[in-house]
Amino acid sequence: MAFIIKPLITEKMTAITTKSSEDKTYKIKGETRTKVAQPKYGFLVKPEANKIEIKKEVENLYNVTVVAVNTLNYAGRNKSRYTKAGLIQGRTNAVKKAIVTLKEGDTIDFYSNI
Description:
Elements: E1 4-7, H1 11-20, E2 24-28, E3 31-35, E4 40-45, H2 51-62, E5 66-74, E6 78-83, E7 86-91, E8 95-102
Antiparallel strand pairs: 1-4, 2-3, 4-8, 5-8, 6-7
């Protein structure tokens, strides 16, 4: 069953991906250390998907090794609008986002199929 709806390609997610894809160096008590880059990518997934299913599907689709999966649940919002027929009320769909952390050296190219 396909749990991934689409990848998140927004300014905010792109900034997170580029920031996490670079090695970081910092000093602790005069000693210089480096934190290895582990790139993060975002996906819009179905609300019933769990972390294990998301991990398996990303690994199968993109041939990468997933280290961690973080999920965010967004409830649907109530919306209403006035029309000629009167007041129309409804609700937007609930959404779940997944932030996937990959093993160092792995990358995903979303534009390779274009």
